[in-house]
Amino acid sequence: MPGDVIFDKPMRMDNSYVENGKTYAEVMGLFDSEKGSLVALEGAWSPRTDEVVIGIITNSRNQVYEVDLSFYGRAILIGSKYDRQTYKLGDVVQAEVKDIENRKTVILWRPRTLYGGTLLDVKATKVPRIIGKANTMIMQIASITKSNIIVGNNGIVWLKGGDIALATMAIRKIEDEAHTSGLTERIKKLLDTRQVGGTNKEIA
Amino acid sequence: MEGLDIVKSHYVKELIAKGTREDGRGMFDFRNITIIPNVISHAEGSAQVDLGATRVLAGVKLQVEEPMEDTPDQGNLMVSSELLQLAHPEFESGPPSPESVELARVVDRGIRAAECIDLTKLFIEEGKAWSVFIDLYVLNYDGNLFDASTIAAMAALSSAKVPKYEDGKAVYEERTKPLELKNYVVSTTFAKADGVLMLDPNIHEEAASGARLTITNDGKVIRAMQKGLGGSFSPKEIESLVDVSLSKYSEIRKRIAPD
Amino acid sequence: MASKANKPQLIVDGKRLDGRALNELRPIKIQASVLKNADGSAYLEWGDNRVLAAVYGPKEAMPKHVQDPVKAIIKCKYQMAPFSSMGEHGRSGPNRRATEISKVTREAFESVVMLNDFPGSEIDIFIEILQSDGGTRAAGITAAAVALANAGIHMKDLIYAVSFGKTDGELILDLNMIEDNYSECDMPMAIAPRNGELLLLQMDGNLTKEEMKRGMAMAIEAGKKITAIQKAALQETYKKTEADIKGSENGV
């Protein structure tokens, strides 16, 4: 909890601060003693380089595109002469974070347009669980629902085709239960029983 | 995030074209409705209503006032609404928006036209009558504020108690007599997207729609209507929606208050 | 304001009109994460007060000219519902009292939120008093702190607020409406529990230095209880899910 002492000595780690020689938490989180880090349970996305994100083109001027990543800062995608692709306002794109300036301007590269489908906004803090270790969780959902799914680290998920309602239900369940164990098994059970032709078809 | 909502509304449009909805319900089904009466004990009446993820809190206050000059033998009814900023990231501060004013006026018209409250019974004595204030507090916005607000207003009215009147003033600590309701209304709001009609649109279905129609009825006749947004309806469509509206009355009426 | 001439006796045999001891809080209940659209929210019942607090952000500060390139800005709006008080219908819209409370509340949070973590952004705090019975600014701050933590906003501390006053020659904690109307003074405070620093402080009436010291000690003692209720509410949002899972796995 914010204000709780984590260490009686100064330590540098995310989501904490040092005051009078002690290290305090600044969010509600879980302490991971293996990695020695404080994992936030809630909160906005903070960009990191190399992360895959999903956004929407909101502005373009001379091959410089502004992309809405649904966070407090700005994101810019610069078209290059090697990339003949152009984007329209409202296009959904997947891209990688190349650089971050002043902690709030994100420079994107390696873009790819995502045609059709729909978007889902999830809590950015739950993205690692939604993806799962070595992509296991999201691959499980995609293979059973036959949906194309891409998860952006900024908390935007793109879904296309297949049983989107069921995939959405599974992702929401992971979001709600991200802090519990045995989640992979429970999601598999949900997908098996609710899928088309399953015993208990229902839509979220 | 605006862009995200636009993408979602495109998707919802595709679904509607196939005759399905985001949450799997039928075209003329309401979302789940939850009504909690008497949530604010300081008010004379109150109710919190969830229509899917849309949440409206209605509070009813009664106050002794001088009757209006042109109706000296009647009390007053005032409906106001607040699209609270905490209900949606795009709700803004400042004076009531046109959307907020329209909402309050449409709810007001249904209740007034159906004479749910007999305003002559609010008359107390020469120069004194009860004014009934209904405040609609929108706490979470996920589409179709009209129906959620009318249900909340009716549920709050049916839970309301009239304070004791003494020496020209209300004694708020003593409230026993229920506020008498002569009639009940139920509101049904429809949206039209690519020619497809649906009841109780959620926020993405609203965004995907070109026209909206609210029909308020008392189980027998139509009491108020309001067409909204830029699109239009044919007379035939309106006729069929009136039938749907009337068919929804008893289901919702039962939820508002037992007979 | 009630006239002092009609003042009822507020303390009888060491107990207050509602049966509380002089240093006793009213019952407090908090539920976190109650609104779907908000990034963080809390519903608080404090005696007969009913408060809803919600937080949006950090998001891009608007309009652009209010942006601070090196830190986040906080906006805060406290308001009272027109049906919130026992008695006549209130006027809606901002008034001088609500404007002042919004300002001092914002300033209380400015010293605990890690503003530098989100440059150029804004964090909105909305406090809606749905029902009022004295001490609503303290209740609002206590609820808003939970809503901020629920939104994952980086903060140095989970702050709380409470007030004390003086009546019939005695100091009393956490004044309700009737006590507030007749009391000789009222001193609301917002406090950071980790170091006891005061982040909001207002006072009117009459108070000796000695009484002030005793009142502050009383508030800090009460704060231990308030902090525990705030933390339990935040933890509950996670426990509830565990219970739901167990329920659903037992064949529900």
How would you describe this protein?
- The complex is a heterotrimer of chains A (204), B (259) and C (252).
- Chain A is 20% helix and 35% strand.
- Chain A has 204 residues and is α+β, with helices and mostly antiparallel strands.
- Chain A folds into three domains: 5-40, no CATH class; 52-114, Nucleic acid-binding proteins (OB fold (Dihydrolipoamide Acetyltransferase, E2P), Beta Barrel), CATH 2.40.50.140; 118-194, 2-Layer Sandwich (Ribosomal Protein S8, Chain: A, domain 1), CATH 3.30.1370.
- Chain A has a five-stranded mixed beta barrel with strand order 6-7-8-10-9. In chain A, strands 1-3-2 form a three-stranded antiparallel sheet, with no helix packed on it. In chain A, strands 11-13-12 form a three-stranded antiparallel sheet.
- In chain A, helix 2 runs parallel beside helix 4 and helix 3 (164-177) packs antiparallel against helix 4 (183-194).
- Chain A is flat, with a radius of gyration of 19 Å.
- Chain B has 259 residues and is an alpha+beta fold.
- Chain B has five helices and twelve strands.
- In chain B, helix 2 crosses helix 3 (145-158).
- The mean pLDDT of chain B is 95.
- Chain C has helices at 96-110, 136-150, 177-182, 209-249; strands spanning 11-12, 15-16, 28-32, 40-46, 49-60, 73-80, 121-131, 160-167, 170-173, 185-192, 197-201, 204-205.
- In chain C, helix 2 packs across helix 4.
- Chain C is globular, with a radius of gyration of 19 Å.
- Classes of the chains: A alpha+beta (204), B alpha+beta (259), C alpha+beta (252).
- Chains in contact: A-B, A-C, B-C.
- Chain A binds chain C through residues 1-3, 5, 15, 17, 19, 24, 26-28, 40-44, 46, 71-74, 102-104, 125, 176-177, 179-180, 186, and chain C through 39-40, 57-61, 69, 72, 112, 114, 117-122, 149-158, 192-194, 231, 234, 238, 241-242, 245, 249.
Short description:
With 204 residues, chain A is α+β, with helices and mostly antiparallel strands.
